[in-house]
Write a structure and sequence with these properties.
8-stranded parallel barrel; TIM Barrel
């Protein structure tokens, strides 16, 4: 069985409370296994960063408006009972550990232990600058943030001292429902990100060809630290890739990719429609769970 999750209405001008709530509850009623958010802060008019590693590719227009990630997750937790509530992904450099440990533990508590906490290092120099973070440190900060979060979610009293973060001896509560912590998902794809995933995470969340991803994750699992379970792999699929440079998959193409993901033993699938040109109104968002329901009914 390969659960199918959906990225929720979060980006762009066609999102409001009613659309988000109806989408989440419709997805749950239809049997989707997860509801997923992403993180972006603002839309600068002048961008020097290489969007998603592609120099010169324009930042998608959908990023002009983005609901806050952890706040959206809290609403999703309150409105549903069964699906995973996940981040794919939070940008590590935009957070400090005590604040984030509290926010995510709150989501886990409100969802009765359904949180999957996903992270990556991001790509936007402009957004890192807003958080007073040197983007050249983003990999090391991510490593330390994960270590500090695990300390915060461990037994009290908590104490942590690193290069970027220092937590004095203190109680940090609430703790997550699941012990010792929620599953950690990595959206990292670079060689260094792959090594970070092998060392610190429970789930890998790649894009691209499921067959190649299965081959790579099987190799990654041969290098896992002793005592760690094998990495799970949650395949990310787009109805249309960000930037609009590739031909859209559309509904039929994504349904075929879900089948291919199951064929190659993905542990879960996340479908993202945020950048699809078919999303042109609140009603289009509202119809999406029904449009894609064949991928759930095929279980």
């Amino acid at each position: 069985m390969t659960p199918v999750g959906l990225s929720v209405p979060q980006l762009g001008p066609h999102v409001d409370r009613a659309v988000l709530k109806d989408f989440c509850q419709s997805a749950e009623a239809l049997g989707y296994g997860g509801l997923w958010v992403q993180e972006h802060l603002f839309f600068p008019y002048e961008v020097a960063s290489a969007y998603a590693g592609h120099k010169g590719r324009p930042v998608p227009e959908q990023y002009r408006s983005v609901l806050g990630a952890t706040q959206t997750m809290a609403a999703m937790a309150a409105w549903t009972e069964r699906p995973v509530i996940g981040s794919s992904i939070l940008v590590a450099g935009y957070h400090r550990p005590v604040e984030l440990a509290q926010s995510l533990a709150t989501v886990d508590l409100l969802s009765d232990g359904r949180l999957v906490a996903g992270f990556s290092v991001g790509w936007s120099d402009e957004e890192h600058a807003q958080m007073d973070v040197d983007p050249r440190t983003r990999g090391r900060r991510c490593d330390e943030l994960i270590d500090a979060l695990e300390a915060c979610w461990g037994p009290d009293p908590v104490e942590f001292h690193g290069q970027f973060f220092s937590i004095p001896r203190s109680d940090v509560d609430p703790k997550p429902v699941r012990s010792p912590r929620p599953p950690l998902l990595s959206g990292m794809l670079s060689p260094r990100g792959i090594e970070r995933t092998i060392a610190k995470f429970d789930i890998w969340n790649p894009v691209g060809d499921p067959a190649q991803n299965r081959e790579l994750v099987d190799e990654m699992n041969t290098r896992r630290p002793r005592g760690r379970d094998p990495l799970q792999v949650y395949q990310r699929l787009f109805l249309e890739r960000p930037g609009g440079e590739d031909e859209p998959n559309g509904v039929d193409g994504v349904l075929r990719m879900v089948d291919r993901s199951r064929e190659h033993r993905m542990d879960a699938v996340i479908i993202d429609a945020s950048f699809w040109r078919g999303i042109d109104s609140p009603a289009a968002w509202a119809r999406l769970p029904e449009l894609l329901k064949d991928c759930v009914e095929a279980e």
